């Protein structure tokens, strides 16, 4: 199985939150003006498979998976907790057990679940506990969700391969969790990176993270993403 080493560089001055807060010894982050234009989504996605991942700020993760061939749509949202209908304020403040996550609609004839798992591990630091870059807290933890035993085995075996190959200098802390429920985030979070290119977090964290992914996964990209 192909093993890809992806070194992540982070900027600690901004965070994936909309306003200044102080959270469990974390650094305060600043409010940014965002595009709150409603997102109208009318795609017919019933013929696509779904996969679910969490690896830090969902603005970043959504943009990464949307650049991958065979992926038709990606939604930002919340998963991994038990609270019903969580809001961004609740999740961002760490008031729920949910993580910021994405729902990926993909064509398995073009890209496999195994390859999506490779994209997941190759686009973030799976050895960082409850943190990705400037974003701290369990809501930013690394989670690979599985829907059945086959998917669970794929994730587990890939982790074993990464660790056996010593790709990372530290143990992988990614949670491998049975998928239960995905709550779609508020409309203004969808396609956030595309609609807010001048946001300081997007410029300094999200876009560089996306570009590093593209550099390491050129064969996985859609034509328009090159």
TrEMBL record:
Domain Peptide methionine sulphoxide reductase MsrA intervals: 50-201
Keyword Iron-sulfur: no
Keyword Amino-acid biosynthesis: no
Database matches in SUPFAM superfamilies: Peptide methionine sulfoxide reductase
EC number: 1.8.4.11
Taxonomic superkingdom: Bacteria
One MF annotation (Gene Ontology) recorded for this entry: peptide-methionine (S)-S-oxide reductase activity
Catalytic site positions: 57
Reactions mediated catalytically: L-methionyl-[protein] + [thioredoxin]-disulfide + H2O = L-methionyl-(S)-S-oxide-[protein] + [thioredoxin]-dithiol; [thioredoxin]-disulfide + L-methionine + H2O = L-methionine (S)-S-oxide + [thioredoxin]-dithiol
UniProt keyword annotations, A-Z: Oxidoreductase
Coiled coil: none
PANTHER family xref list: PEPTIDE METHIONINE SULFOXIDE REDUCTASE (PTHR43774), PEPTIDE METHIONINE SULFOXIDE REDUCTASE MSRA 2 (PTHR43774:SF1)
UniProt family annotation: Belongs to the MsrA Met sulfoxide reductase family.
UniProt function note: Has an important function as a repair enzyme for proteins that have been inactivated by oxidation. Catalyzes the reversible oxidation-reduction of methionine sulfoxide in proteins to methionine.
Protein name listed in UniProt: Peptide methionine sulfoxide reductase MsrA
Protein source organism: Flagellimonas algicola
Annotated gene: msrA
